[in-house]
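Entry 14. Structure prediction run on the chain below.
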Amino acid sequence: MLQVEQADLYYGASQALRKVNLRAAIGSVTCLLGRNGVGKTSLLRAIVGQQPLRDGSIHWAGKDITNWPAFRRARSGIAYVPQGREIFPQLTVEENLRSGYACLAREKKRLDEEVFSLFPVLQQMLGRRGGDLSGGQQQQLAIARALVTQPKLLVLDEPTEGIQPSIIQDIGRVIQTLRERGEMAILLVEQYFDFARELADEYVVMDRGEVVLAGSEKEVQPHEVRRWLTV
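Output returned:
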Protein backbone atom coordinates (compact mmCIF):
# COMPACT_ATOMS: atom_id res chain seq x y z
CA MET A 1 0.00 0.00 0.00
CA LEU A 2 0.98 3.57 -0.69
CA GLN A 3 0.46 5.89 2.28
CA VAL A 4 0.94 9.65 2.12
CA GLU A 5 0.69 11.30 5.53
CA GLN A 6 0.35 15.03 6.30
CA ALA A 7 2.28 16.05 3.18
CA ASP A 8 3.39 19.68 2.81
CA LEU A 9 5.13 20.75 -0.39
CA TYR A 10 6.47 24.15 -1.41
CA TYR A 11 7.82 25.77 -4.55
CA GLY A 12 9.94 28.50 -3.04
CA ALA A 13 7.61 30.49 -0.76
CA SER A 14 4.48 29.14 -2.44
CA GLN A 15 2.79 26.22 -0.69
CA ALA A 16 1.35 23.65 -3.12
CA LEU A 17 0.26 20.91 -0.67
CA ARG A 18 -1.19 21.32 2.82
CA LYS A 19 -1.34 18.30 5.15
CA VAL A 20 -2.40 15.92 2.38
CA ASN A 21 -3.27 12.31 3.21
CA LEU A 22 -3.79 9.63 0.57
CA ARG A 23 -3.92 5.83 0.31
CA ALA A 24 -3.64 3.52 -2.69
CA ALA A 25 -3.91 -0.26 -2.28
CA ILE A 26 -3.01 -3.23 -4.46
CA GLY A 27 -5.99 -4.31 -6.57
CA SER A 28 -7.79 -0.96 -6.50
CA VAL A 29 -7.97 2.32 -8.40
CA THR A 30 -7.66 5.53 -6.39
CA CYS A 31 -8.87 8.54 -8.38
CA LEU A 32 -7.37 11.91 -7.48
CA LEU A 33 -9.65 14.69 -8.70
CA GLY A 34 -9.85 18.47 -8.61
CA ARG A 35 -9.76 21.58 -10.74
CA ASN A 36 -6.61 22.73 -12.51
CA GLY A 37 -3.92 24.10 -10.24
CA VAL A 38 -5.09 22.55 -6.95
CA GLY A 39 -1.94 20.44 -6.38
CA LYS A 40 -2.72 17.08 -8.00
CA THR A 41 0.40 16.90 -10.16
CA SER A 42 2.53 18.25 -7.30
CA LEU A 43 1.33 15.35 -5.16
CA LEU A 44 2.19 12.84 -7.89
CA ARG A 45 5.64 14.38 -8.33
CA ALA A 46 6.21 14.02 -4.59
CA ILE A 47 5.14 10.37 -4.67
CA VAL A 48 7.47 9.43 -7.53
CA GLY A 49 10.40 11.44 -6.12
CA GLN A 50 10.53 14.40 -8.50
CA GLN A 51 9.72 16.98 -5.82
CA PRO A 52 10.69 16.83 -2.13
CA LEU A 53 8.24 17.32 0.71
CA ARG A 54 8.79 20.07 3.25
CA ASP A 55 6.97 18.01 5.88
CA GLY A 56 5.03 14.76 6.14
CA SER A 57 5.90 11.27 4.92
CA ILE A 58 5.42 8.77 2.11
CA HIS A 59 5.39 5.04 2.77
CA TRP A 60 5.36 2.32 0.14
CA ALA A 61 5.20 -1.42 0.80
CA GLY A 62 5.89 -0.81 4.47
CA LYS A 63 9.00 1.34 3.90
CA ASP A 64 9.49 5.06 4.46
CA ILE A 65 10.49 6.35 1.02
CA THR A 66 10.08 10.06 1.79
CA ASN A 67 13.73 10.82 1.10
CA TRP A 68 14.40 8.21 -1.56
CA PRO A 69 15.55 9.49 -4.99
CA ALA A 70 13.27 8.86 -7.97
CA PHE A 71 15.37 6.03 -9.43
CA ARG A 72 15.19 4.07 -6.16
CA ARG A 73 11.40 4.46 -6.07
CA ALA A 74 11.22 3.20 -9.66
CA ARG A 75 13.28 0.17 -8.71
CA SER A 76 10.91 -0.49 -5.81
CA GLY A 77 7.97 -0.80 -8.22
CA ILE A 78 6.61 2.73 -8.70
CA ALA A 79 5.93 3.72 -12.34
CA TYR A 80 4.84 7.18 -13.51
CA VAL A 81 2.99 8.21 -16.66
CA PRO A 82 3.27 12.02 -16.62
CA GLN A 83 0.81 14.51 -18.03
CA GLY A 84 1.83 15.23 -21.60
CA ARG A 85 3.19 11.67 -22.04
CA GLU A 86 6.89 12.70 -22.39
CA ILE A 87 7.85 9.94 -24.80
CA PHE A 88 11.06 10.26 -26.81
CA PRO A 89 9.88 11.54 -30.22
CA GLN A 90 13.05 10.65 -32.12
CA LEU A 91 13.22 7.09 -30.79
CA THR A 92 11.20 4.24 -32.25
CA VAL A 93 8.30 2.69 -30.38
CA GLU A 94 10.51 -0.28 -29.50
CA GLU A 95 13.32 1.98 -28.25
CA ASN A 96 10.82 3.95 -26.14
CA LEU A 97 9.59 0.72 -24.58
CA ARG A 98 13.12 -0.50 -23.92
CA SER A 99 13.92 2.76 -22.14
CA GLY A 100 11.78 1.34 -19.33
CA TYR A 101 14.52 -1.22 -18.72
CA ALA A 102 16.63 1.36 -16.88
CA CYS A 103 15.27 0.43 -13.45
CA LEU A 104 15.21 -3.35 -14.00
CA ALA A 105 17.72 -6.04 -13.15
CA ARG A 106 19.48 -7.56 -16.17
CA GLU A 107 17.47 -10.79 -16.14
CA LYS A 108 14.18 -8.87 -16.29
CA LYS A 109 15.07 -6.73 -19.30
CA ARG A 110 12.68 -8.12 -21.88
CA LEU A 111 9.58 -6.98 -23.73
CA ASP A 112 6.73 -8.96 -22.27
CA GLU A 113 4.08 -10.06 -24.77
CA GLU A 114 1.52 -8.97 -22.18
CA VAL A 115 2.23 -5.35 -23.07
CA PHE A 116 1.23 -6.05 -26.67
CA SER A 117 -1.88 -7.92 -25.59
CA LEU A 118 -2.95 -4.75 -23.77
CA PHE A 119 -1.86 -2.40 -26.58
CA PRO A 120 -1.83 -4.44 -29.82
CA VAL A 121 -1.41 -1.34 -32.00
CA LEU A 122 2.11 -0.85 -30.61
CA GLN A 123 3.32 -4.21 -31.88
CA GLN A 124 2.42 -3.09 -35.40
CA MET A 125 4.41 0.11 -34.97
CA LEU A 126 7.62 -1.03 -33.29
CA GLY A 127 9.82 0.55 -35.95
CA ARG A 128 7.93 3.84 -36.16
CA ARG A 129 9.25 6.94 -34.39
CA GLY A 130 7.34 7.98 -31.30
CA GLY A 131 6.88 11.50 -32.61
CA ASP A 132 5.04 10.15 -35.68
CA LEU A 133 2.28 8.54 -33.61
CA SER A 134 -1.08 10.16 -32.93
CA GLY A 135 -1.69 11.65 -29.50
CA GLY A 136 -3.73 8.64 -28.45
CA GLN A 137 -1.07 6.21 -29.65
CA GLN A 138 1.60 8.17 -27.80
CA GLN A 139 -0.49 7.89 -24.63
CA GLN A 140 -0.73 4.13 -25.07
CA LEU A 141 3.04 4.03 -25.60
CA ALA A 142 3.64 6.04 -22.42
CA ILE A 143 1.49 3.65 -20.38
CA ALA A 144 3.11 0.61 -21.99
CA ARG A 145 6.59 1.99 -21.23
CA ALA A 146 5.57 2.28 -17.57
CA LEU A 147 4.26 -1.30 -17.57
CA VAL A 148 7.59 -2.54 -18.97
CA THR A 149 9.07 -1.69 -15.56
CA GLN A 150 6.78 -4.33 -13.98
CA PRO A 151 5.34 -1.90 -11.42
CA LYS A 152 3.35 -2.54 -8.28
CA LEU A 153 2.13 1.08 -8.24
CA LEU A 154 1.06 2.71 -11.51
CA VAL A 155 0.67 6.50 -11.32
CA LEU A 156 -1.27 8.07 -14.21
CA ASP A 157 -1.57 11.84 -14.67
CA GLU A 158 -4.60 12.65 -16.85
CA PRO A 159 -4.24 9.83 -19.39
CA THR A 160 -7.35 10.95 -21.34
CA GLU A 161 -6.18 14.52 -21.94
CA GLY A 162 -6.47 15.52 -25.59
CA ILE A 163 -7.09 12.08 -27.08
CA GLN A 164 -9.93 10.61 -29.11
CA PRO A 165 -12.88 8.83 -27.46
CA SER A 166 -12.08 5.40 -28.93
CA ILE A 167 -8.63 5.36 -27.33
CA ILE A 168 -10.05 6.70 -24.06
CA GLN A 169 -12.23 3.57 -24.03
CA ASP A 170 -9.20 1.38 -24.76
CA ILE A 171 -7.24 2.96 -21.89
CA GLY A 172 -10.21 2.46 -19.57
CA ARG A 173 -10.33 -1.23 -20.46
CA VAL A 174 -6.60 -1.58 -19.80
CA ILE A 175 -6.94 0.02 -16.36
CA GLN A 176 -9.86 -2.28 -15.54
CA THR A 177 -7.83 -5.31 -16.65
CA LEU A 178 -4.85 -4.31 -14.51
CA ARG A 179 -7.09 -3.76 -11.48
CA GLU A 180 -8.84 -7.11 -11.92
CA ARG A 181 -5.51 -8.92 -11.94
CA GLY A 182 -4.99 -7.67 -8.40
CA GLU A 183 -1.24 -7.26 -8.77
CA MET A 184 -0.80 -3.48 -8.59
CA ALA A 185 -2.20 -0.32 -7.08
CA ILE A 186 -3.34 2.35 -9.53
CA LEU A 187 -3.37 6.06 -8.73
CA LEU A 188 -5.23 8.00 -11.40
CA VAL A 189 -5.45 11.77 -11.79
CA GLU A 190 -8.33 12.68 -14.06
CA GLN A 191 -10.35 15.71 -15.13
CA TYR A 192 -12.96 13.69 -17.02
CA PHE A 193 -15.25 12.65 -14.17
CA ASP A 194 -17.34 10.14 -16.11
CA PHE A 195 -14.16 8.24 -17.00
CA ALA A 196 -12.99 8.31 -13.37
CA ARG A 197 -16.39 7.24 -12.10
CA GLU A 198 -16.29 4.05 -14.19
CA LEU A 199 -12.97 3.05 -12.63
CA ALA A 200 -12.74 4.47 -9.12
CA ASP A 201 -12.65 2.29 -6.03
CA GLU A 202 -11.59 5.28 -3.93
CA TYR A 203 -11.96 9.03 -4.44
CA VAL A 204 -9.62 11.75 -3.22
CA VAL A 205 -10.70 15.29 -4.15
CA MET A 206 -8.39 18.28 -3.74
CA ASP A 207 -8.89 22.03 -3.65
CA ARG A 208 -6.20 24.67 -3.04
CA GLY A 209 -3.61 22.11 -2.01
CA GLU A 210 -5.83 20.29 0.48
CA VAL A 211 -7.94 17.15 0.47
CA VAL A 212 -11.55 18.27 0.76
CA LEU A 213 -13.31 14.96 0.13
CA ALA A 214 -12.19 11.33 0.37
CA GLY A 215 -13.82 7.94 0.57
CA SER A 216 -14.80 4.79 -1.29
CA GLU A 217 -17.03 4.89 -4.35
CA LYS A 218 -19.84 3.59 -2.14
CA GLU A 219 -19.35 6.33 0.45
CA VAL A 220 -18.91 9.31 -1.85
CA GLN A 221 -21.84 10.53 -3.92
CA PRO A 222 -21.16 11.69 -7.51
CA HIS A 223 -22.78 15.09 -6.94
CA GLU A 224 -20.42 15.71 -4.02
CA VAL A 225 -17.44 15.14 -6.30
CA ARG A 226 -18.84 17.16 -9.19
CA ARG A 227 -19.29 20.31 -7.12
CA TRP A 228 -15.53 20.43 -6.55
CA LEU A 229 -14.85 20.02 -10.27
CA THR A 230 -17.14 22.66 -11.73
CA VAL A 231 -15.69 26.10 -12.38
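The chain has a mean pLDDT of 93.
Filed with the rest of this week's runs.
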